Amino acid sequence: MEIINRRARMASLTRKLRRENKTVGFVPTMGALHEGHFSLVREARQMCDVVIVSLFVNPTQFNQSDDFKKYPRDLTADAALLTEYQVDYIFAPDTTEIYGENFSTYVYVENLTESLEGASRPGHFRGVATVVTILFNTIRPDFAFFGQKDAQQVAVIKRLTQDLGFDTEIVVASTVREESGLAMSSRNSLLSEEERRAAAIIYKALREAKLAVKEGERSAGRLAEIVRSKIMSEPLAQIDYVSVVNSETLAPVGKIEENAVLIAVAARFGNTRLIDNMVINKRL
Ligand code: PAF
User: What SS3 state is found at 80?
Assistant: First the structure.
């Protein structure tokens, strides 16, 4: 496993791999790796000749400087963990390698980025879309791997991949959960023990909604209400949003029918904001 810091070196290496007809799998991350990331790496390892993982805490996707500052970082620990997953290259650039002097070009994906996380974190998806574009341009992967937990991010990246003509297939892996049901996230490390226990309520609430659909509930409004009231039963939880939307367009839906619907949740436990979701349709 080699750690690469320079964008030019990463680009020339992947150019060589393409000439050798090797398939390149890319797992973009911001580090603070957990089982959710490792499941993406395992999938990449199975599908591709060469696996590249990026570790880069992207400043432009944080709309609060405090959130950026306190985001967990430990390159040495992350690199050590990745050796166990037969990763070929780690790409760990400095901020100046990605955002050079006088950097002025941003990628803005319309329509999909104004609601949900976009509404709560203005500018977040502009930062994500910009860094993913730079990383895809540098690496030009055959496959790129993302987690379903960040469902809106997946929708945004699929859109930009298609719109900007990247020859990269987006592979989406299921959310990995702790035993309590809490979705794995780098932010979980910021929760106190009590908050971590309390945060399991999100998955319980999503499961209650799923059960309601199984029992015949078709109203998106009532499903959102089921999720909201279950989460509110936990005194440490503060809901940011509960939305029921089309999983591709992210447009609000009124009724659960054949199309895949996303029940998306964001909630705070203490100072830590967590997101999770469940995809359903009337057949579940
Ligand atoms: O999901 C993440 O960790 C980040 O948003 C990503 C895709 C690595 C871009 O910085």
Answer: helix
In a domain, 284, yes or no: no
Of 151, 173, 195, the last residue of a domain is 173
Express each pLDDT in 192-243 by its tens digit: 999 999 999 999 999 999 999 999 999 999 999 999 999 999 999 999 999 9
Assigned domain for 46 exists: yes
**Residue range of the domain that includes 98:** 2-173
Q: Whose CA is nearest to atom 2 of ligand 1?
A: 29
The catalytic site residues sit at 37
pLDDT in tens, 113-138: 999 999 999 999 999 999 999 999 99
Residue 129: CB within 6 Å of ligand 1?
Answer: no
d(CA 82, CA 85): 5
Report whether residue 28 contacts ligand 1, using a CB cutoff of 6 Å. yes
Which atom of ligand 1 is least distant from the CA of 132? Answer: 9
102 and 158 housed in the same domain? yes
Q: What is the pLDDT of residues 8-37, one digit of tens each?
A: 999 999 999 999 999 999 999 999 999 999
Which atom of ligand 1 approaches the CA of 150 most closely?
1
**Residues 161-165: contacts with CB within 8 Å, 24+ apart?**
161/136, 163/109, 164/107, 164/133
